[in-house]
Structure formats: structure tokens, C-alpha cells
């Protein structure tokens, strides 16, 4: 199941647009957790993607909604959302994790925060846990901070706890990384690095030789990095709209400096990256595969 933020990212629209399409046109009916969170399945995402494709082709929103519903009625998209074995209802791990992280962050409870992360990281592979559980839960935590339910201190406490887990996973994956050399970092003034660091772990687990440079890297340093002829690729992220201009400047400069270099980008605002940057999507395992394929061309 996806939170509203995660579903909107997968479709490529804003959460406000998703809510509007849902309420005004009735294209989908999301599930609700016991706490009232909207939860979207793969079927919902498929219908929304169909509608967005039509809107992008110039259809009016109303006609696109009606056509997407008609297409789904005649050729229904499969719903591969995980379901509880005994109830037949969609499993709902995300709100429970998000609520626990939010409560721990609000109370500055490091013990429960650590216990919640221990529990979620035991659910599956690193890539699955991050994409399907941790990222959406952090999105909900961010909403709680924006609403004033969690302090800046609580949000930082949670983010740093996740970063420590990523650091451990990154070091544990070191024996995997003997393939093509890639460098990962953020543009100047860009500081939200959890997503990029998680991708660095996934890339290393995929066999790439990774150098993670972290947040807020000056343009001159980026240019110095890509002068290394052994470097196969660089990866940046554009987490917020405020990060778009600096990322655009860095990506353009890198492509001009090394036209042969693979430049890839992830993050919520990756659609705004200039060409010829590769978009890695929002699933870190799939993104690592996209990067590997781009390097091997």
C-alpha cells in the first residue's frame, strides 16, 4: 500500500491533484487505515497513471477521468497489493510504522524509535523496506512536523536515526562493490540526503563501486570529481522544488565537462532535471538497475 505522497510520486502528480481527481471525478476509492490515513494500491496507481497519460495528451481532466474509468472497467489493471493472509484485505504496515515513528519523535523517545526501526528492517530486503516502508513513513513524519505535531528536534532525531542505519548498511555492502565506479552527492544548498544515501546502498549492493559525498557539494568540487577518467557515472537527487535551480546548474555543468559521463538523478523533483540526465524513478532497486543498464551501454 502507498501513502498519498508515495502514490502521487509514482503517478507524477502533486498530492493536491490526486485529492482533486479522487474527490471530483471518483476515479479511485482509496482504502482507509483505522487512523484515517488514505492508502492506495497498485490498481489505484495504474488507473491514475492512465488518466495522467490522457491529460498529458491534451484531454480535459473530466474526459480523461471518464476514459480512465472506462478503460479500467473493460481492461482492469491487476491489483498486486500485498494482502493479509486471513482477511483478504490489504496489509497496512505503513500507518502503524508512521504513527510509531511520529509518537517516538514527538516524545523524543530514542528507545521506541530504535525498536520501530529494528522491526521494520526485519521485514524484508533493504531495498523493499526503504521503498515500501521507510520512505512513506518519513513522508508522514514530515507532515506531522509541518502540522506542528512533531518538533524540529523530533524530526532531526528520527532522520538521524535512519541515517545511522543507512551508514551501517552502506559499510556492510562494501564487499559487493567492485564494479563500475560511481560518485553520489547533492548539489549546493541541498541537504535532504536520506533518499540518495539509501540509493547509494542499493547501488553498492548491486555491485557498483560507490563514493558517497553527501550534501551541499560546491559546483567546483563536482567539476573536480568528474575529471577522474575512471569515473563511470554520477548520481544526484532533487528532493524539493527549492533544490531544482542548483541541481540544474550542476547537471548542466557536468554534462558539458564530460559528455561521455552517465549523469543520473533521483528524488521527488527528478522530472525537472535537464536533459540528458537519466531519471532513476522512486524505487531504489529499480533505479539501481536503470543506472547499471545506462553504464553498460
From TrEMBL:
<dbReference type="GO" id="GO:0046872">
    <property type="term" value="F:metal ion binding"/>
</dbReference>
<feature type="region of interest" description="Disordered">
    <location>
        <begin position="72"/>
        <end position="93"/>
    </location>
</feature>
<feature type="domain" description="B12-binding">
    <location>
        <begin position="179"/>
        <end position="297"/>
    </location>
</feature>
<dbReference type="Pfam" id="PF02310">
    <property type="entry name" value="B12-binding"/>
</dbReference>
<dbReference type="InterPro" id="IPR006158">
    <property type="entry name" value="Cobalamin-bd"/>
</dbReference>
<dbReference type="InterPro" id="IPR047057">
    <property type="entry name" value="MerR_fam"/>
</dbReference>
<keyword id="KW-0238">DNA-binding</keyword>
<keyword id="KW-0805">Transcription regulation</keyword>
<dbReference type="InterPro" id="IPR000551">
    <property type="entry name" value="MerR-type_HTH_dom"/>
</dbReference>
<dbReference type="InterPro" id="IPR036594">
    <property type="entry name" value="Meth_synthase_dom"/>
</dbReference>
<dbReference type="InterPro" id="IPR036724">
    <property type="entry name" value="Cobalamin-bd_sf"/>
</dbReference>
<dbReference type="Pfam" id="PF13411">
    <property type="entry name" value="MerR_1"/>
</dbReference>
<feature type="domain" description="HTH merR-type">
    <location>
        <begin position="1"/>
        <end position="71"/>
    </location>
</feature>
<protein>
    <submittedName>
        <fullName>DNA-binding transcriptional MerR regulator</fullName>
    </submittedName>
</protein>
<dbReference type="InterPro" id="IPR009061">
    <property type="entry name" value="DNA-bd_dom_put_sf"/>
</dbReference>
<dbReference type="Pfam" id="PF02607">
    <property type="entry name" value="B12-binding_2"/>
</dbReference>
<keyword id="KW-0804">Transcription</keyword>
<dbReference type="GO" id="GO:0003700">
    <property type="term" value="F:DNA-binding transcription factor activity"/>
</dbReference>
<dbReference type="GO" id="GO:0031419">
    <property type="term" value="F:cobalamin binding"/>
</dbReference>
<dbReference type="InterPro" id="IPR003759">
    <property type="entry name" value="Cbl-bd_cap"/>
</dbReference>
<keyword id="KW-0678">Repressor</keyword>
<dbReference type="GO" id="GO:0003677">
    <property type="term" value="F:DNA binding"/>
</dbReference>
Amino acid at each position: 500500500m502507498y501513502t498519498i505522497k508515495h502514490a502521487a510520486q509514482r503517478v507524477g502528480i502533486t498530492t493536491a491533484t490526486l485529492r482533486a481527481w479522487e474527490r471530483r471525478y471518483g476515479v479511485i476509492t482509496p482504502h482507509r487505515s483505522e487512523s484515517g490515513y488514505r492508502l492506495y494500491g497498485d490498481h489505484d496507481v495504474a488507473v491514475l497513471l492512465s488518466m495522467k497519460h490522457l491529460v498529458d495528451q491534451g484531454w480535459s481532466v473530466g474526459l480523461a477521468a471518464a476514459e480512465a474509468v472506462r478503460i479500467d472497467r473493460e481492461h482492469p489493471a491487476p491489483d498486486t497489493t500485498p494482502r493479509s493472509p486471513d482477511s483478504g484485505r490489504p496489509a497496512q504496515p505503513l500507518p502503524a510504522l508512521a504513527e510509531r515513528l511520529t509518537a517516538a519523535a514527538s516524545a523524543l523517545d530514542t528507545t521506541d524509535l530504535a525498536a520501530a526501526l529494528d522491526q521494520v528492517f526485519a521485514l524484508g530486503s533493504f531495498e523493499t523496506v526503504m521503498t515500501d516502508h521507510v520512505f512513506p513513513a518519513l513522508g508522514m513524519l514530515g507532515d506531522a512536523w509541518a502540522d506542528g505535531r512533531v518538533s524540529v528536534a523530533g524530526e532531526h532525531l528520527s532522520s538521524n536515526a535512519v541515517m545511522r542505519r543507512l551508514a551501517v548498511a552502506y559499510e556492510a555492502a562494501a564487499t559487493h562493490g567492485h564494479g563500475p565506479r560511481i560518485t553520489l552527492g547533492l548539489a549546493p544548498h541541498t541537504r535532504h540526503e536520506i533518499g540518495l544515501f539509501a540509493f547509494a546502498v542499493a547501488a553498492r549492493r548491486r555491485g557498483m563501486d560507490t563514493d558517497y559525498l553527501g550534501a551541499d557539494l560546491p559546483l567546483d568540487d563536482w567539476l573536480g570529481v568528474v575529471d577522474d577518467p575512471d569515473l563511470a557515472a554520477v548520481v544526484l537527487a532533487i528532493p524539493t522544488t527549492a533544490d531544482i535551480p542548483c541541481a540544474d546548474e550542476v547537471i548542466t555543468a557536468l554534462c558539458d565537462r564530460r559528455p561521455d559521463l552517465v549523469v543520473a538523478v533521483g528524488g521527488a523533483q527528478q522530472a525537472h532535471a535537464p536533459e540528458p540526465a537519466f531519471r532513476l524513478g522512486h524505487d531504489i532497486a529499480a533505479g539501481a538497475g536503470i543506472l547499471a543498464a545506462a553504464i553498460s551501454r
